[in-house]
Design brief:
Number of domains: 4
Mean pLDDT: 94
Oligomer: single chain
Number of strands: 23
Strand content: 15-25%
Radius of gyration: 24 Å
Shape: globular
Helix content: 25-40%
Low-confidence stretches: 580-598
CATH class of the largest domain: Mainly Beta
CATH architecture of the largest domain: Roll
Number of helices: 20
């Protein structure tokens, strides 16, 4: 038999956590046709994978590619790092239904993608306005990776109630409106959507001029509304994804309660996110313990999403999402006109308000609000680059808040600074990524283009694991680490992905373990033609990924995305939840050759 692709002599990881072994994989018609110790060379394309890891394609369980997939469906920034399946519709945001203006206002500010890019894009591209039409539309795109999606609660709430009513305190949906939301949710599930996503975090704000700075529609819903919709999600065995109010943290208990499986069917619930934040060094232990109790004692099924690397952040002036956490920060971001914003920042009353909130340790917080930990990386005045706001405040003999506001008023968004939010301690980070109730993900790919760069999170995770093993202090086997970013996510999310087995879709990564070095942490800025040349923050290391196959087609070679990706034919597909009861063909057991750490 002549195969399309033959991969020889690689260290094969099956995506199920079983021992890896040296062997060959043959691909035919988009499927894995054979896996064995040795397969005769008879293929159109042959890879010698000696010294390489051969893994399933990685799964990114939390992206906001909803807008970018319309402008550039190849989603190359993820594919080049071995991600072959992504999930959209997160955090109550979805572009499946509603007017272009409503959707742009909900999506743009929260995800830090300029509205002047998102709105014209939707006005040009949006031809759908139903669950099936959107699924069919996604499947018609020349996709790079496979794409799955949640149904966003903000989207259906605004569509059903009208945007203004959905954003009004004390206004509940009528019975007729609730029935309509339930119908839309059922239609989405019937079309293969993963489930329902909600958001209760009030510092995620609306864009545009009509309702600017109001929280998203989902945040206005009473929990009874959420529970009623979740009856459908529970009955259908789908997933409830949610953002708790991470500032106050208390309403995470409602998410736990929703998942409980005592006297009823448990609800698959995934929560954003488990982290070791600088602002609270013990919270990750508390949340992890509570989740363990919920899942073991109370028969829940909760999974905490976690970034497997340092969670850092770049900011332009005061234009940064964590400033939405407190009123003075939101007031500044509310002013889109930089001249008006500058006037506000120089106002004495405003400055007192900002300082009072910044220094108040009794206010709930996620951001550490420590200017000792915030370094200037770009500024028209080059003498300021590389210095912290605290350093400069001491020189100026000012309170650090005064220095920060002075500089932001003077330079606007031309002063760029860097800080670390959390996950900066290796011990707690290893605890988090090893936890049985954690799913490795929360990349936010496609959002916060100027602020965050977690597209290559699987590589950063594998580097963490491999470094520990090479140091003689392993905390997770490589096999289990690969499983955590492939088969584990795919199985829990009900996706036909993440496995290397005969009959499975051929989504395969050839990875050079020697390329898992410090370069995977290096920040770069790359212009995005699809968004008017806007600069995106990325981490790239071309030495790590030798090749990526999606649906049996070669999408990446030697770290470079091939020009064919995103063309008229595409590589990936819309991937529905449990699209079919997949019966893998059992491969004959062959002698496995032990594989040492590369």
């Amino acid at each position: 038999m002549k195969y399309d692709v033959l991969i020889k002599n690689g260290r094969i990881f099956d995506g199920e956590g079983n021992p890896s072994f040296i062997g060959d994989i043959a691909v035919l018609d988009g499927k894995i046709a054979a896996i064995a110790e040795s397969i005769p060379v008879d293929a159109v394309k042959v890879y010698d994978a000696k010294g390489l890891w051969v893994t399933p394609g990685f799964v990114d369980l939390h992206t906001h590619y909803d807008a970018e997939v319309e402008a550039s469906p190849g989603l190359k920034e993820s594919v080049m790092h071995g991600v072959t399946t992504i999930t959209m519709g997160s955090c109550s945001l979805s572009l499946c239904i509603g007017t272009s203006e409503d959707l742009a206002d909900m999506f743009s500010r929260v995800e830090a993608i300029p509205r002047e890019q998102v709105l014209p894009l939707l006005q040009k591209k949006k031809t759908w306005n139903s669950m099936k039409e959107y699924a069919d539309h996604l499947n018609s795109l020349p996709l790079g990776p496979n794409v799955s999606t949640f149904l966003g609660h903000s989207a259906i709430r605004a569509y059903t109630m009208g945007l203004e009513r959905s954003l009004s305190y004390g206004v509940k949906p009528t019975e007729e409106e609730m029935l309509k939301m339930e119908k839309l949710l059922q239609e989405a599930i019937d079309c293969g959507y993963l489930g329902l996503s909600i958001n209760t975090l009030t510092w995620d704000k609306m864009d545009g001029n009509r309702f600017r700075s109001r929280p998203l529609p989902s945040t206005f819903a009473k929990w009874s509304e959420i529970s009623r919709l979740n009856k459908i999600v529970r009955r259908e065995g789908r997933i409830f994804q949610g953002v708790p109010n991470v500032s106050t943290k208390y309403n995470v208990l409602l998410f736990f309660k929703e998942s409980l499986g005592i006297f009823r069917k448990k609800l698959k619930t995934t929560i954003i996110s488990l982290m070791d934040p600088r602002s609270n060094r013990s919270i990750y232990r508390v949340v992890a313990l509570l989740t363990r109790i919920v899942n073991t004692v109370f028969r829940g099924d909760v999974r905490l999403q976690a970034v497997p690397a340092v969670f850092d952040l770049y900011a332009d002036g005061v234009d940064v999402v964590v400033f939405e956490e407190f009123g003075a920060g939101t007031a500044a971001i509310h002013l889109a006109d930089l001249a008006e914003r500058r006037k506000l920042l120089m106002d004495n009353g405003y400055r007192k308000w900002f300082r009072r909130q910044w220094t108040n340790w009794f206010l709930p917080r996620v951001f550490h609000r420590d200017f000792n930990q915030s370094k200037i990386v770009e500024c028209p005045d080059q003498k300021l680059v590389g210095r912290s706001f605290s350093e400069l405040a001491k020189e100026r003999k000012q309170h650090v808040v005064e220095t920060f506001l002075d500089l932001c008023a003077e330079y606007g968004n031309d002063i760029r600074w860097y800080t670390v939010i959390g996950n900066d301690r290796k011990g707690p980070l290893k605890y988090i990524v090893s936890h049985p109730d954690v799913l490795i993900g929360f990349s936010d790919a496609g959002a916060h283009l100027r602020g965050m760069a977690h597209y290559n999170f699987p590589l950063r995770f594998l580097k963490l694991v491999r470094d520990a093993e090479l140091e003689g202090k392993p905390f997770l086997s490589t096999e289990k680490a690969v499983w955590r970013v492939t088969g584990e996510i795919a199985d829990w999310f009900g996706l036909d992905a993440g496995k290397l087995k005969v009959g499975a879709q051929a989504d395969i990564v050839l990875l050079n373990p020697k390329g898992l070095d410090e370069k995977v942490e290096t920040i770069q800025e790359v212009p995005m033609e699809e968004f008017g040349g806007m600069v995106r923050l990325v981490r790239r290391n071309e030495d790590a990924i030798r090749a990526v196959l999606i649906n049996g087609k070669v999408a990446v070679e030697k770290g470079k995305v091939l020009p064919e990706i995103g063309n008229e034919t595409g590589f990936g597909r819309f991937m529905a939840y449990k699209e079919k009861d997949y019966l893998y063909t059992s491969r004959k057991e062959s002698k496995r050759v032990p594989a040492s750490v590369a």
